[in-house]
Amino acid sequence: MSRPKTLRKVVAPPNFKGYKPYGTHAGTRDSVELLYEEYEAIKLADYDLMNHLEASKLMGISRPTFARIYETARRKIAKAFVEAIEIKTVYGDALLDKHWYVCDDCQTRFTIPKTIEEHQCPLCKSEQIELLNT
User: What is the pLDDT of residue 133?
Assistant: First the structure.
């Protein structure tokens, strides 16, 4: 029996729900599910230019685990590019740093400071918001 997975710390969720290829006429095809922790690994290694050891410490996981997550994310993105299929982000085994919300009206993702009691979108003031860390 394998060990239970530890949750991977993610500072912020992706600012998108997914990506679709532009200019293909293939209709509805399969999609690739990019987990939040895979997105975080790509962001830390390729965008923030951290080495694997620094990034693994930030995510609260071992360096080999980070390397496996990063490799899986790269393969999924490569598959989506080559096969021209959609990429969707899904929660996975992530532990978000704070409580993150998404507005159902304008799709803004945000946190609410503990000093603010009303729960509404800071952009459009809608009260139709949904907690992402579930």
Answer: 62
